[in-house]
Amino acid sequence: MNFIKALSVLAFTAALTGAVAAQNAVADDIPLCGPDTLDTGGPARCRAPNSDATDILIIRPGTPATPARLPLVYIFGGPGLYPDRQFPRMQALANRWQRTLLVAVPPGLDSRVNPALVCAGEIAPRLWEAANTPEAAEPMTSDPATPLAACLGHIGRQSNSTTALSTATAAARLAAALAALDAGKVDILAESYGARIALDVAARRPDLVHSLALDSPETPWVPAFWHSGQNLMAALDRLEDACGYRRKCPTRGRRMAEKLMTRLAAFNQASAPAMRLRDQTSGEVLGYVRPARAHLELRLISALASPVEAGHLPYIAASRSDADLQRRFARLVSGYVLDDTPALSFAVHHIVRCSEWPMTRWYKALDADAATYPTLRPMLAYLKARQQHICTALGVTPPDSIDRLSAPLIPTFVLSGTLDPVTPANSVENAFSGDPMVQRRLYENAGHVVQLAADCVLDDIDAFFQNPKGQAPSSCKRDNLQIPFFQPISVR
Prior knowledge:
Alpha/beta hydrolase; eight-stranded mixed beta sheet; signal; 10 strands
């Protein structure tokens, strides 16, 4: 860390003393959840009894339905996704469904109250660091320690920062807040990791929950869940199948996954030019990076969560050189690198992961996948080394096992997407197979399903909430979820 950065970290740490001292005052400004909270014109946030931070953000529709519908609780994944960053999307859902949304804020995610868990500015954990010129762009390292040192040191210095963030605590606080609202029953829609909180709330307080919808739920008790390499390759194979049906797909399904792996295996960071990052709207050059192969492979996983980004992968697979690969990958990397607003709390994410996931299962699966898919070995080795380093630095010893969550006792709608390598559809099917209260639906060409914001998917969810015991057919047709495969514009 250079001298200026060191001073910045010291100044930030010193400022925490005042911030922590003001914590109680901040908490006092957050209204308690109560029977009058949901009245029109009521507060926009509230906290459960005995809580010192926001537990629920309240988003009201522009025009409520008549008669009024049950409130809808929304729980994000991550863990550690900042709910307030998603406000525009949540307001759009509230307006579409004409119902009040109660957005859950799990412990540690009210940054005003939890400054010890915020790594921002100079101590932010940065995987990608853009330079102003190609010459200044340093080769990115696969060593996980350097870009994380300041943040991990900050988290480790704070007392109690690794406690009270568990899934069970999050569920207990949310259940307490809902009970205090005294609004009767609610529906719950949860994404990814949030499904574990939702199922816990429903098990604790079935009297408060009318129905559940779980989008791409996290299922770490299923063995296949841990195979990141295998799940990525399976998702690429399904993308290849989708590509084969489309005339405008650059590879037309002709061994797209194989071509992509071959191109990545030949990539040489030392000789490849710096990747030029552009504003995707204006075309302005905003910086340069020199990624290693592991960083490019990691980007494939996140790209498959979005239909627009997934549609770019066949174009990358058709690259003919390292320069070609860099230029085409830059379209995926630019927005990811240059967004300075963190969507995820690094601290909350990894404290929960390290304390709840049986990491040895993941590490063994990563090793097995590295032997099966040698092209992915740099990425899989990086994932393992990074997670081991983080858990050790946080002083958290992962458990040896994780229990299967209890089967839901209320009507539950489970959605999954064929392209999702993070919460793969086969693991979701395995986890909920045979549960009598569960309706499962698989969406073609989707990653995390609700993030698509496809009208037909939202209509399916709404139809379930309106009649949870019914078996309404999907309103999605094949054309509704087509992948917009990227086609470069040729000027003649």
